[in-house]
Amino acid sequence: MGDLAKIFKAYDVRGVVPDELDEPIAEAVGAAFVEVTGAGSVVVAHDMRESSVPLAEAFIRGARSRRADVVHAGLGSTDLLYYASGSLGLPGVMFTASHNPARYNGMKMCRSGAVPIGGETGLREIRDRAAELVGASAAPGGSLIEKDLLQGYADHLRTLVDLARIRPLKVVVDAGNGMGGHTVPAVFEGLPIELTPLYFELDGDFPNHEANPIEPQNLVDLQRAVVEGGADIGLAFDGDADRCWVIDERGRSVSPSAITALVAARELAKYPGATIIHNLITSLGVPEIVREHGGVPVRTRVGHSFIKAEMARTGAVFGGEHSAHYYFRDFWFADSGMLAALHVLAALGEQERPLSEVVGAYSRYHASGEINSAVADQGEALRRVREAFAGRGEFDELDGLTVTGPGWWFNLRASNTEPLLRLNAEAADESTMTAIRDEVLAIVGRVSE
């Protein structure tokens, strides 16, 4: 199957352009997408990468060759594509490689209503059919409509968060030359916000830093700008602007677990007794705070497909991940970093305290952050860790190995794509967290030697 087997991942399509992903492949995927989903109409959007326009146009040719009509939304963030799919009631495709380097591109696909398409829900069938269609072009039969959805997207998000009573705020936003530079001005328009933009110029070469806010080195410019400018808050978006990272007024990074708990509390005030989803490596504080606010916490594996599936199954109003993905029932169960940012701005602006105090109420434990170790024999490393912690805590293997002891826990799980083990540890005090973290890393390190 050549390149198609390599670029079709568990949840999306991603590869190097043009070596692995080119226009003939995109055209074949467009035709296959229509055939597999049975779509009569499709909405398409793309990010700012140089390869995104030609790839999107090739996909559109393929979709139209199967007599599907196409709504071309043009430039957009991934959550704008979800808005388009949900509001128009159409399957959709977003051309982006998120935070990956400039030479990459890809596709995120969904059914009508922003329902994700993954390996188990149609992506493999699209891959297999596309492999048969590469190089077999046909004349277009469906229509093409260009539609600017940016204002509709911005207006819709503002209906989901009450921002009418917020005080004036000084906000620094680092768009990382990604799609936040396109969407933030539209969403913030008319709000009492003094905006300091960093790297809003759309540039798929990412000349300033990677558009990946989970890596601390990519937050340095934002942190400096917040402190030097006396800002109330800093926000960093990734390349396709579906993730948002928060910086407080002191220039310190705010844990996505604290943001998850804060937004959960706000959603529970709106929907008393509702279910909140969190993955298994968010802080113990998240389920505690959810229960304290009358909600029902549900724990899932890591990964957006598991979060979205559990949200649909339980009717959860909100879900959060350690990676700064935030999911909303009111947004078709899809993730939106921008919507999470509006919740944080509302929570900050409705009262007078600084952000560090606001989020301090949602930060209860000391966390290691995610630590990656290169390990060839992952199974042996996990076996040795199990052996070392036998009798010291409760074992749980929902996703890798989670061990929970008195006032501490850790999770050690294998990467799906690389020979890595990922460790997250947390404890009520920093010394305990450090001891647990170092003990596990020492065991893993002995296996990798």
TrEMBL record:
Domain of life: Bacteria
InterPro entries recorded: A-D-PHexomutase_a/b/a-I (IPR005844), A-D-PHexomutase_a/b/a-I/II/III (IPR016055), A-D-PHexomutase_a/b/a-II (IPR005845), A-D-PHexomutase_a/b/a-III (IPR005846), A-D-PHexomutase_C (IPR005843), A-D-PHexomutase_C_sf (IPR036900), Alpha-D-phosphohexomutase_SF (IPR005841)
Any one Gene Ontology molecular-function term assigned to this protein's record: intramolecular phosphotransferase activity
Cofactor(s) essential for the protein: Mg(2+)
Keywords, in A-Z order: Isomerase, Magnesium, Metal-binding, Phosphoprotein
Similarity comment text for this entry: Belongs to the phosphohexose mutase family.
One GO BP annotation of this record: carbohydrate metabolic process
KW Phosphoprotein (keyword) present: yes
Pfam families the record matches: PGM_PMM_I, PGM_PMM_II, PGM_PMM_III, PGM_PMM_IV
Identification of the protein by name: Phosphomannomutase/phosphoglucomutase
Organism: Nonomuraea phyllanthi
Residue ranges of domain Alpha-D-phosphohexomutase C-terminal in the record: 370-441
SUPFAM superfamilies: Phosphoglucomutase, C-terminal domain, Phosphoglucomutase, first 3 domains
Residues in coiled coil: none
Alpha-D-phosphohexomutase alpha/beta/alpha domain: residues covered: 6-130, 152-251, 259-365
CDD domains the record matches: PMM_PGM
